[in-house]
Amino acid sequence: MYVQLCTYQGIQKATISSIGAALASGHDLESSGISVIPCGGKSNVFTAAAVFISFRIPTYCVWHSDENTAQAVGPCEKCKRPLDKASNPSENRRLLRLLGLPEEDWPSHIKEKSACFKMDRETVVKAEIGEDLFERILGEEMTRFDIRKRDHALKNPKVVSAVTASASRSGKTSPSLDLIVKHVLAMKD
């Protein structure tokens, strides 16, 4: 049996966090028959999940509700063009409806078939592990892997796995990532 893990916004921190957390806890998702599918946006998560679900393929969706971008940013100070990054909650509602969950504008949950964060997952993981410890370990791993750009490091599953594992050895974990991995692996059984 295959399980599809559909994630928001391409090969980015959400996808890498899931892979990294699984690796840190000793699980290789791909070897377990679990495909991680970066979808490139909430509407694409919806489309991919709808297709997989219609074929009765177990599917776990991960996205963030973009509550922090719910308000328009305003005009550019230089050119005065609108910098409207306002998020549309209708995409959240569509995903929740597809997954059989109660609709709301800005969801935040970790459930058996989906996880949604009000903020990006890096912010959540940093808060769970502790910002100072997260930043220290990330810096050490960037040096060890010879990665100079922070964003590149956060997109590398080996780095994220090392950060998660090192934090765990220091007695700090990310309960949200651990729970997502647990739910995804349970779908396999």
Could you characterize what this model shows?
- The chain is α/β, with parallel strands linked by helices.
- It has one domain: 3-Layer(aba) Sandwich (Rossmann fold), CATH 3.40.50.
- 47% of the residues lie in helices and 12% in strands.
- The chain is built from eight helices and five strands.
- Strands 2-1-3-5-4 form a five-stranded mixed beta sheet, with helices on both faces.
- A hairpin with a 3-residue loop joins strand 4 and strand 5 (114-117).
- The longest helix has 14 residues, at 131-144.
- 34% of the residues are buried.
- Residues 9-14 have low confidence and may be disordered.
What topology emerges from the helices and strands here?
Blueprint: E1 3-7, H1 13-24, E2 34-38, H2 42-54, E3 59-64, H3 90-98, E4 109-110, E5 114-117, H4 121-129, H5 131-144, H6 150-154, H7 157-169, H8 175-188
Parallel strand pairs: 1-2, 1-3, 3-5
Antiparallel strand pairs: 4-5
Helix pairs in contact: 1-7, 1-8, 2-3, 4-5, 5-7
